[in-house]
Amino acid sequence: MDFVGAIDQGTTSTRFMIFDHAGREVARHQLEHEQIMPRAGWVEHDPVEIWERARTCIAAALHAAGLTARDLAAIGLTNQRETTVVWNRHTGRPYGNAIVWQDTRTDHIATALTRDGRGEVIRAKAGLPPATYFSGGKLQWMLSAIDGLLADAMSGQAVFGTIDTWLLWNLTGGASGGVHVTDVTNASRTMLMDLATLDWDEELCEIFGVPRVMLPAIAPSVHAFGMAISPGALGAGSAGGSVPGGVLIGGVLGDQQAATMGQACFAPGEAKNTYGTGNFLLLNTGASRFASPSGLLTTLAYHLGTGAPSFALEGSVAVTGAAVQWLRDQLGIISGAADSEDLARKVDDTAGLYFVPAFSGLFAPYWRPDARGAIVGMSRFHTNAHLARATLEAICYQTRDVVEAMTADSGVRLDVLKVDGGVTANDLCMQLQADILGVPVSRPDVAETTALGAAYAAGLAAGFWAGTDELRANWRESRRWEPSWSADRREAGYAGWKKAIDRTLDWVDVG
């Protein structure tokens, strides 16, 4: 058993990656899934489609590498966090589409919690502000909107999970005995778990009207979650895939916590930024939990199964890579994500144009569900190239917003920003990030650290790696970008960004 596999189930796609002992990629297979948007502000996924994609990706990656299940020491699982699924434990059928973390239909719930003071209870216990982002409000909405669901939940027939729980339940047998478990990192994103006890909290469940019986058990991130069922018991399925039988599922983490492990941020004060559909910057704070007066989240970084869990401060940005997809899918000014760099390089700057992609409101550090996207500073001089460059700059300015808040909360000033995720393949965007922050930006040899971190967790559970020192030794830098802007240009650009942010606020009525 010379390899470890990892399911990386993201907002727009699912992939299965295989790594060797040195943390090098051996094979991968990736498939996109449909983004369902039935009305403005609503974003949904089909849970069955996601499960089928996962099965297909596992089989295809193993086939591409010429491997079988016997070559895998363990499988890790990482997932888009907060996305909410409810299904029947006896039939395995979901009660509807999954409600995605980007979805804003629960803005009235979040606003009411803030207004009546219950939001402070949530902040104190769960480390999170009441926001549309998190799972608790989505689950409350489903329980009230779907006929018969509340009764089924109270009787134990209907069960809840984030995507990790849904996939884990199916991987380990589904309706025929699948385990109903999540890990602490995903549980910490629900507004239902108390960070002090690492367990579901009765008061928080009561706030959201959630029957505790429908919630999964909570386990450490490194844990023997169960064994994948055999292909014979599952069958090929309509997607033509299967899962390997008899392989330990040994690690589960939310995607950003997995990337923290993949970047070997195991010491307090170490930070990483992942660029995907959104941006997520995590600062490891070790065993200490810090409340954030600056708009950051207190969350779990990971729990290795022994000793104390590690916490983090997190800055979550809703729309970064998704803004590039918007250029492609809605505006049609590029044919693929890579084209954004070529188009943006046609101009030397944005000529005063700013694009704030607040499609789902603003997340950290603002937490303003009333905000909506805006393009400001336009004149007839501007072209699609200026808009493409402004989109890349928006990714970087939103990261700076989070870094400024993190510095204010922790007193830690970054010497270098470790980056990962798909957008880091855009060299211009990474150069702009160094320019806008004023610190070097470092990309590792394995840019897809989300999958790598899940593999690390699973490998630790299986004894494939002995400990975190061995994982840290695997980290290698691929490229570094140094700042090139003057301090005056940097600060003038950021001042313009803050003015653009102001133009997005109070655009819609919420609550």
Describe this structure in words.
The chain is of the alpha+beta class and 511 residues long. Helix content is 35%, strand content 22%. It has 17 helices and 23 strands. The strands form seven sheets. A seven-stranded mixed sheet has the order 17-18-16-15-21-22-23. The radius of gyration is 22 Å and the shape is globular. About 2% of the residues have low confidence.
Helix content: 25-40%
How does the overall form come out from the CA principal axes? globular
Would you identify the regions where 5 or more consecutive residues have pLDDT less than 50? 230-241
**SS elements, strand count:** 23
Number of helices: 17
What's the alpha carbon Rg, rounded to whole Å? 22 Å
Helix and strand composition category: alpha+beta
**Mean pLDDT level:** 92
The largest sheet has its strands arranged as 17-18-16-15-21-22-23
Largest sheet: number of strands, sense, barrel closure: 7 strands, mixed
Distance between the termini: 54 Å
Strand fraction equals 15-25%
Compact summary:
With 511 residues, the protein is an alpha+beta fold. Helix content is 35%, strand content 22%. α1 crosses α6 and α10 packs across α15.
